[in-house]
Design a protein that fits this description.
Blueprint: H1 4-17, H2 23-34, H3 39-46, H4 50-71, H5 73-86, H6 92-102
Helix pairs in contact: 1-4, 2-4, 3-4, 5-6
Length: 104
């Protein structure tokens, strides 16, 4: 069983990288992680084997973690949000410079 923390992380990664997945992978991911269907329910709904669903979800998970490892888009997004939150407490110029460096 997957931890809640891992599911949250996968959903965040999915939000960033879903356009890099196939339509089938997107559909399976949404049913399992966002609509909380079981593997068996998805299999019956889509008329495929439970094992096919399991294999595709594992591939999606691997892809999402691999994309983030290489591209770090989620990490940069989170850093940007942190910097923006700090804008009220620090000099704006320093923080703007940090934001620019993230996109270099």
């Amino acid at each position: 069983m997957e931890t809640l923390e891992k599911k949250e992380q996968l959903n965040e990664l999915f939000d960033v990288y879903q356009t890099l997945l196939t339509d089938k992978q997107i559909e399976y991911f949404k049913y399992y992680y966002q609509e909380d269907y079981s593997l068996q329910e998805i299999a019956e709904l889509l008329d495929v084997s439970r094992n096919a669903i399991f294999d595709q979800l594992k591939k999606v998970e691997q892809h999402l973690f691999s994309y983030e490892e290489k591209l770090k888009l989620l990490e940069k997004k989170q850093k940007r949000l942190e910097i923006m939150d700090q804008l009220q407490t620090k000099e704006c110029k320093e923080l703007i410079d940090e934001l620019r460096k993230l996109d270099e």
